[in-house]
Amino acid sequence: MKKLIPFALLASLALPLVAQEEAQTDEVKQPQQVEVKKTTTMWPAFFAVSQWPRTTDVLGLRLTVPFSTSQENVTGFDLGLWGESIDFEGIAVNVLRNDVRDHATGVQVGIYNSIGFGDLVGIQVGLWNEAVTMTGVQAGLVNVAGDAEGFQVGLINRAETMHGYQVGLINVIRDAELRFMPIVNIGF
Fold first, then answer.
1. CA dist list (Å): 112 to 15, 94, 97, 109
2. pLDDT tens-digit profile of 77-100?
C-alpha cells in the first residue's frame, strides 16, 4: 500500500503533460484547419506545484503544494497552502493565502484572503480579509473593503462605502456621516 502512494503522486503529475502532448499531436494531424482554437486543460483533480503545469482553466479540485500561481480560472475546490488565480468560483481553503486578482464567487478560508482588483460575491473567513467590492460576509480580525454590501464582523472593520452592518471593536465607514463607531456601525 505504501508503494502505491508515490506512484499515484507521480501519475497525477504526469497527466497534464500527456494531455498537452495529445492536444499538440491533434493539431499537427489537421493542418488544413483555418480556425485555431485556444486549448485549455480541465481536470477533475489537479495537482499544482509552484508554477507547474501552466494551464488556463482548472475545473474540479486544485491541490496547491506549496503554492500555485499559473492557473488563471479556477472553478471548484482549491486546497493547499497558497492559491492564486485571476478568477475563482467555489471554495478555497488555503492555509496561508487565497489571492484572486479579478473576481471571486464563493468562499475563501485562510490566514490572508484577498480580491486584489475585483469583486467578491460570497464569504471570506480569515485573519485578514480584503476586497475592492464585496457583496456578502467578511469575518476575521481585520476586514477591509472598498464598496461593501453585507456584513463585516471582526476586531477592525473598514469600508469606503457600506450598505450593511459592521460588528467589532473598531468600525469605520469612510463615506458615512458617522465615520467611526465602536461595537456596531450601520451603513445605508
1. 31, 9, 5, 8
2. 888 888 888 999 999 999 999 999
User: Closest Cα partner for 57 from 25, 86, 80?
Assistant: 86
- Residue 48 · residue 63 · CB < 8 Å: yes
* Three-state SS sequence of 9-77: HHHHHHHHHHHHHHHHHHHHHCCCCCCCCCCCCCCCEEEEEECECCEEEEEEEEEEEEEECCEEEEEEE
Q: Which helix (H) or strand (E) holds 111?
A: none
Distance CA 160, CA 70 (A): 32
Q: What single DSSP character describes residue 177?
A: S
Contact 86, 72 (CB under 8 A): yes
Does this model's pTM top 0.85?
A: no
pLDDT (0 to 100) of residue 7: 42
Say what the pLDDT of residue 45 is. Answer: 62
Residues 6+ apart with CB under 8 A from 34: none
| Residues 123/108, Cβ–Cβ less than 8 Å | yes
CB 70 within 8 A of CB 57: no
The answer to whether the CB of 71 falls within 8 A of the CB of 56 is: yes
Give the cell for residue 157.
472593520
